[in-house]
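Below is a filled-in request sheet from our internal design queue. Each sheet records the structural input a requester submitted and the sequence that came back. We keep these sheets so that new team members can see what a complete request looks like end to end.

REQUESTER: design group, bay 2
PRIORITY: normal
MODE: inverse folding
CHAIN LENGTH: 162
BACKBONE (tokenized):
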């Protein structure tokens, strides 16, 4: 079955040149629950200190903690909705220097910040944008730090390709 061709206007997204290099951007906060810690880890990282509160109580952490992958996913969601969705992002390219600095527990409120560190041309119609990002808990203590390289379309719309 084929669909009739329907031409849609591209969303009005900003080019890489409009990303404010050097500015820290607040991307919102998120409260972590015990149910989601267990649900995420049961599907993606089923280690006992993520999925079993009784066993986790006897771990080095003294209780249930979120998977690092879960924590990174919370960062991504907050960064995407708080900053990335305004820009014409083509794709993520690399995550480097990801550091899990302290455990994330049920009830923690994580706040995301992103600082655009650099942007440089990366071929026709694209820029390589590097951000430094992180999450802090409700006590202002860092729980995650990372750097992300992404390709973002540049103002040169004539060079766009599919």
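RETURNED SEQUENCE:
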């Amino acid at each position: 079955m084929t669909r009739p061709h329907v031409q849609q206007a591209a969303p009005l997204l900003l080019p890489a040149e409009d990303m404010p290099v050097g500015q820290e951007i607040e991307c919102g906060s998120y409260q972590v629950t015990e149910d989601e810690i267990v649900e995420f880890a049961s599907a993606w990282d089923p280690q006992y200190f993520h999925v079993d509160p009784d066993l986790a109580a006897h771990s080095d952490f003294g209780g249930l903690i979120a998977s690092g992958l879960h924590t990174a996913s919370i960062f991504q969601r907050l960064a995407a909705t708080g900053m990335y969705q305004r820009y014409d992002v083509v794709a993520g390219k690399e995550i480097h220097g990801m550091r899990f600095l302290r455990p994330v527990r049920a009830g923690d409120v994580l706040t995301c910040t992103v600082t655009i560190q650099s942007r440089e041309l990366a071929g026709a119609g694209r820029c390589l944008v590097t951000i430094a990002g992180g999450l802090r808990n409700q006590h202002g203590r860092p729980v995650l730090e990372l750097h992300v390289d992404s390709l973002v379309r540049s103002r040169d719309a004539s060079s766009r390709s599919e």
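SHEET NOTES:
- The chain has one domain: 16-156.
- Confidence is low (pLDDT under 50) at residues 158-162.
FILED BY: M.R.
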